[in-house]
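User: Here's a chain of 555 residues. Predict its fold as tokens.
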Amino acid sequence: MSVSRKIQIYDTTLRDGCQSEDVSLTIDDKLTIAQRLDDLGVDYIEGGWPGSNERDAAFFKQIKRVKLRHAKIAAFGSTRRHGVRAAADRNLQLILRTDTPVATVVGKTWDLHVREALRISTDANLEILHDTIAYLKRRVDEVILDAEHFFDGYAANPEFALACLKAANDAGANLIALCDTNGGRLPNEISAGVAAARGAVDCALGIHCHNDADVAVANSIAAVEAGAVQVQGTINGLGERCGNANLISIIANLQLKRGYQCVPPKRLKMLHEVSHLVYELANVTPIARQPYVGRSAFTHKAGLHVSGIQRNARTYEHLEPELVGNDRRVVLSELSGRANILYKAREFGIKVEANHEKIGFLLEELKRLEGLGYAFDGADASFQLVMLRTLGLTREYFRFVSFRVFDDKWHEDQAPFSEAVVVIEGPDARRTRNSAIGNGPVHALDAALRQSLVPYYPTLESMQLLDYKVRVLDTGHGTGSRVRVLIESHDGKRNWGTVGVSSNVIEASWQALVDSVEYKLHKDGVKPRSRPAVTRNGSIENHEGGAAGNLLARS
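Assistant: Prediction complete.
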């Protein structure tokens, strides 16, 4: 490891991150994220561009009411316009009105942009940089220049690119962030550019990379190794085009791999939490394979790997997942070995010896089911039930007798609806027949099943759907193909996944639905009990109609 050195973390999720095509944050979202970034120990939080929209302007007003313990708020904008005095430039005045301790301005350092975008002389651009920084420096505690396209500019015209940095340095810039704005440069080019900049100016240097070549994190690390003291980026790498440098990975890599200090050591465990908070507020599905904080980051599937981590986690993990707030997972598949089965048994709280005669049978059953199309990666609850049944540890909560589903649409303008009739035999050996209406066949089935079971097991009322997915397994058979249905459920205390497979989507859904119910009852420790109600007309009770349940909103 290198010698411990403080690296400033400058977060621009609230501005650059919001330039992602699929991201839009409310003012409340931004305030929440800013507070969590402060809790994490981020040094700078860029709130936005006050001159670009009303939402960013409102953020700067409201963040003043929030007591931040560590982070400094930065307002962002561009250098003054050509031919306009700094004191008369509207953009600079809006930055000053935010009354933030830090002002960050973006300025051109690539002669191509000066000629083609601004259409001014290179001398005029140097004057703009100097005047803007000098004007802000007299009025703001810290001034940062984002040297836009610096690495492209340095490759094309190194003398001019470095002259731009010198203009900002001479004007009193506290820090110059060297930007790989197009995101196309590689680590060796970043290192060379930072080294050249260090030789040209005496102010601090930072790095701001985009991820168009998929090396923004590597480029940021290379810049730090070359002498940069600040890293700019976004949580989860959100940003325009392919995104910005991912601060989650950068913080973890620099602090855990290279020994730099980015955030207080005890706050590293917040990386997972902060990552998922931003995903949630941005309404973006978390990337399962995201390094460090993704759901799959410390997930093991192959039997050889699982066997190894049981002896020593270092055999197949580069660090302890707890360091970044994540956890270890083992999933089951046709690649599994006995080690996977034993690991899952311990995880489920099932006591079973490694030489138990049914372990081998259970492994073969797993592979047989996987061959039929079952996937237990996201359906631990279904596999736990398979394991319990194989080991003879399950209870019989009810017996299935029959179900029927009807779909109706009476005229073109009417939405279709479904009716399901379910007949079960309860733990008191009495049969009940229940029907329910739903806005889809699975919705109706769920409602009818729960009408049958809630009188026996009231805790089922707390179940709700989190997700329902259908995947076609053998597309060559068209509408007759087998499908796999995955249901994720929760009850306010825990989440669990179940799976069903069939050439009939209703049957596959029924399998997953029944597993979800049985798993809930098993985890609740419920014992089958007699129904208090009196039967009607013999052994079958009739319960027609009823409100649709809320576990599955549609098939």
